[in-house]
Automatic annotation (TrEMBL):
This is START domain-containing protein. GO terms for molecular function: lipid binding. Coiled coil: none annotated. It comes from the Eukaryota. PROSITE patterns: START. It comes from Acrobeloides nanus. It holds the Pfam family START. GO terms for cellular component: endoplasmic reticulum membrane; endoplasmic reticulum-endosome membrane contact site; late endosome membrane; lysosomal membrane.
Amino acid sequence: MRGYIASREFVDVRRLVHNQENDSYIGAFISLDLAHQSSSSLNGRIRGKNGINIIRITPCADSSESIYEWIMNTDLRGDIPKVIIRRAIGTYLTSYIKMLEAYINENRHKYQ
């Protein structure tokens, strides 16, 4: 996002499950609350927060393509204008999909 969230961090718990019956992947993640960590210990960073996020990837019948669904619940926090977030979210999602695809390809043996 052109440096707007470079100084943010998220502390999340993530889980990815491979459903072998229909060869789909379901992932979920949510931020942890770390009440013991003060904002001064973040060294100027802003802690973003993820609510419950769900990702599902299912294969299309008779195709090498997949359907990618993401219910996103993210609060970047700070003073980022919403117009900038709207412009950048498409690029972010495309990059995320590419990184996820690379991860799955590198770790496919773990989920089979």
